[in-house]
């Protein structure tokens, strides 16, 4: 039985967030071990966004097999929206400047799209 596109998307989004958790633990260990500076941490977090959305886009492209760039883009945007919503709830408001938020959204969307095209 073939899974619906919604089921595939939710499964791939879950896998992407599991990968995010693993990579953030590695980043936290690097922070502890090497006493990273704020700029290095920000770079590391952006690298996590790029890697996970790229991987998620590849998963989406391989799962759906049509309009791969679109499904990669969709995964990247959904990843960002969940990230934004959780951050909004935990911080009880918007955390960061509009420029930072839009940059993060663009990173997630572009990485997901690239992953979809690479699949």
UniProtKB/TrEMBL annotation:
Q: Which InterPro entries match?
A: DUF3792_TM
Q: Which UniProt keywords apply?
A: Membrane, Transmembrane, Transmembrane helix
Q: Where are the transmembrane segments?
A: 12-34, 40-60, 69-89
Superkingdom in the source lineage = Bacteria
What is the official name of this protein in its record? TIGR04086 family membrane protein
